[in-house]
Amino acid sequence: MKKLFILAVCLGLAGISFLFYSFKLKKAAGKISDTIQIETGLISDVKSNSGDVIAFKGIPFAAPPVGELRWKAPQPAKAWQGIKKCNAFGPSPMQAKPVPFMVYTSEFLIPETPISEDCLYLNVWTKAKKSEKKPVFVWIYGGGFTSGGAAVPIYDGEAMAKKGIIFVSINYRVGVFGFLAHPKLTKESPDHASGNYGLLDQIAALKWIKRNIAAFGGDPDNVTIAGQSAGSMSVNCLVASPLGKGLFNKAIAESGSLLISNPLIKANDLQSAEQQGLKLAESVHATSLNELRNVPASELMKFQGRYSPIVDGYILPEPIPDIYAAGKQNNVPLITGWNEDEAFVSGFKKKDAFIQQAKEQYGADADNFLKYFPASTDEEAARSQIKLSRDMIFALSGYKWAAVQSSKSPVYVYNFDRKLPATADYVKYGAFHTGEVAYVMDNLKFLHRPWEPADFKLADLMSAYWVNFITNGNPNGKGLPLWPQYKIDSHSNYKAMIFDKSSMYNELPDKAELDFLLSKAGQ
User: Fold this and answer.
1) pLDDT given for residue 490 in this prediction
2) HEC readout, 352-401
3) Helices (H) and strands (E) in the chain, counts
4) Residue 282 burial (CB < 10 Å; 0-12/13-18/19+)?
């Protein structure tokens, strides 16, 4: 009897153990594993320090655009055997060596290496289960279309993934490698267009996400594209492009669009861009595309010039302002805004010189101009030049986009006014260009500044708004101050969420000066 009792106990314990083990297996079965299958093969991950977020870095979404594929639309990535380790960022796109400048310390820059033409990689952060359909956030970096990359420290996706979304950051070609047009490139293209390779990279990445993101627990039908500066202008292009249809259903644009020409970036027409390409080919003594594609990347970098999106008749079939004016853009909800002090002024004019310039440029309207941009002292003139630079490069185009998009889709406008705490070297830059990014991504830990409690509170607030919008197209949620839609109609609501040490929904600052500048721009 004693032996039978012992046997029964052992069998009981074994049964309990088996049930417990089966429960664990069932519970774990829904989790994203260390190795997952995508269309080109198996990939492995790198876990976060906390262990609840899994990152897959350096996933190739297209073939390396090198050799014969230089200045061609991105081609499918090749499949591989075995398991591909995706535990480090892929190379950043070909560009000049990143060097800190102005307020832009290393936290805003890509690592010095690796930098390569072989750059078409993306990164995914997730804490979802395979069976889930989490909303997807796709980050497109800035850099004036000549620099940047997904490996910038403040673009880390872990904090946002912890809040319940799938965070994806993508690389795209920049500069001469991303936006060179040439008559022979146009002729060889089946689409009879050339130059917008950087935008084609972004579209290829979005198509990859559509096909593969479910493996990471993401919803391919709930994708938000977002970007800052040139990334914001890229979002503006993708919303305008017929090729973007169905690849995303929401957009976030931080600082900039191409609805208004600005002093730094504009969308060239194809013919003008082709002439730029002919001059480059002549400079490097290339008489054929084969010769041009064989020119070393380091040699092409010497003739970098200014390259940006092109009205090519394909990706952008018409000038961007015309697309939006005709209501042909993709109808998606939009968050857009700009920062109080974002500006790029190469040299400040004294008050007399600034006033004289205003008279020459605005004639009879010079007094009105100086009402909005006063110059009674040299210091006041300098401040006005910062405001004017901000308006002409970033704010005015965002203001215009908010107006035209709000006639078709929900729009939410913000102004970021928080002057980032800083040492004496940087305090003068205030609420500078790109300053909001670390807040919306809840990544203050990656930016070395003397943060105050108000900054962490602001990061919590902004990232919560962004996550809500990414989830359902509306930034509002429980416990958050109400952020109403921006509407231009008979009951015009020219208001914005003002983000600062104390945030509030209020009248849009500087609306009168923006209206004045729009009237002078013929818009």
Assistant:
1) 52
2) HHHHHHHHHHHHHHHHHHHHHCCCCCHHHHHHHHHHHHHHHHHHHHHHHH
3) 17, 16
4) exposed
Q: Which tens digit of pLDDT belongs to each residue from 422-477?
A: 988 899 999 999 999 999 999 999 999 999 999 999 999 999 999 999 999 999 99
Residue 28 CA to residue 287 CA, distance in Å, equals 60
Stated pTM of the model: 0.92
Q: 243-258 pLDDT, tens per residue?
A: 999 999 999 999 999 9
Query: Domains of the chain (ranges plus CATH)?
Result: 35-332 (3.40.50.1820)
For every residue of 314-342, DSSP letters joined together read SSSSS-HHHHHHTT-S----EEEEEETT-
Over 282-318, what HEC string results? HHCCCCCHHHHHCCCHHHHHHHCCCCCCEECCCCCCC
CB neighbours of residue 272 within 10 Å: 11
9 SS3 class = helix
Q: Which residue's entry shows tokens 């560009």?
A: 95
SS3 405: helix
Residues noted as catalytic? 229, 342, 433
**In angstroms, how far is the first alpha carbon of the chain from the final one?**
97
